[in-house]
Amino acid sequence: MKFNNSIHLLSSLTLAFLVLAVVVISSASASTVEVPKDVNKIGCLFGPSYEKVVILGAEDKITMASDSHQTLWPWSNIVYKDLNKIPVIIKNAQTPNIEDLVKNKPDVIFFWNTPETVQKIEDAGIPVVPAPDTKKFEDVKTSLDSYAQVLGPDAKAISKDYADYFDKKLAYVKSNIGDIPSDQRPSVYFAIRKPLQTAGANSDISEMISLAGGKSVTDGLDAGFGTDITVEQLLKWNPDYIIIDHCGASNLGSKPADQTLQEMVNDTRFSDLSAMKNQHVYISPTGVFFWDAGQQQILQLMWLAKLLHPDKFQDLNMNNEVKEFYSKFYHYELTDDQADRILKLLPPVKSGGT
Hints:
The chain is α/β, with parallel strands linked by helices. It is 39% helix and 15% strand. Strand 7, helix 6 (115-123) and strand 8 form a beta-alpha-beta unit.
C-alpha cells in the first residue's frame, strides 16, 4: 500500500459489518481515500479536526475526541455545543490505544498523516481519513472541503460557503496590500510554540506572511511546520517583527502565551533583535483553536496584514471580523467584549466572575 497514492480505508471486515457503499474523495495532498457513504459516528483525534467538523455542521455526530480538545482551548468549551459531553475521550491521541478506538466503533476517524499508526487503526477495521497537506495558504480552504466530502451534501454546501468567504477576505487583503516592493516589506519571523521553533518554506506560513505584506525570514528554510532553529540563526535573520503562535499546547511542550512572551523579553540572548528593541513581538490570537493551523487562519491573515500595514487597513475592524466568523461558522454570537478578549488572548469570563 502506498500511503500517498491510494489508501483503501475500509477493510473487508468493516464492509461485511456495515454493508455500506463507499465514496472516494481527493484530499489536498491528492491522495485517494475510501470511507463509508453514511457517517454517523465520528472520531476527531487530529488537532484541527474537531473545529472542521463543527463548522461542517456535524458536531452532534462526534462520539470520540482527543483529550486536548477539552483542555487546551477554553473558548472551545464555551463556543462548541457538545464538546463537554463527548462520551469517549482519548489520551495520547497521536499514539492511541487501538482497543479503545475499536470499542467506540466509529464510522470514521480523522487522524494525523502518520502512515504507521493509520495502518494499525485501519487493520482494526476502522476507516481513517489522514490529515491533508497544508503547504499552501489555499489549503486552509481545500482541507475543509476534503472533510466535507466525507460528511455528505450538507457539509459540502457549508464548505462552499466557507470557500466563498475565504476567497472574499483573501481578495480584500490582496487588494489593500497591492504590489509592495520587497524593500518596503517588514521582515517577519513566525515562531511555533516557543521562540526557537518555526515554520519553513514547506508550510503555508511564509506564504501567509507574504500575502499580509511581509517578508518571511524563513522563506529559504527547507523545513516544515515546527522546526527548531538556533539563537544564532535568529540573530542573523534579525526580523522586524516576531509572531508567536501555538502557545499553551502543554502536550507539545508549549508554555502559556504570557509566560512565553515574558521569558523571551527576559532572555538577554534576544535583546539585540530589532523586533525586541522596537517592541514588535506579538502572540497570535487563538479562540477555539490555534489560528495558524485551523480554519481561523484567514482571520490571522487579516490580523497580520493590519499589524504590519495599519495605514492600509484603517477600515478593518478585527473585533467585527471575529464576531462575523464565529456567528457564520460556529453559530455562536460573541459580544464585543468576548471578541476583544479573544484578540487579546484572554480566556472567557467565568460565570459570576471577571
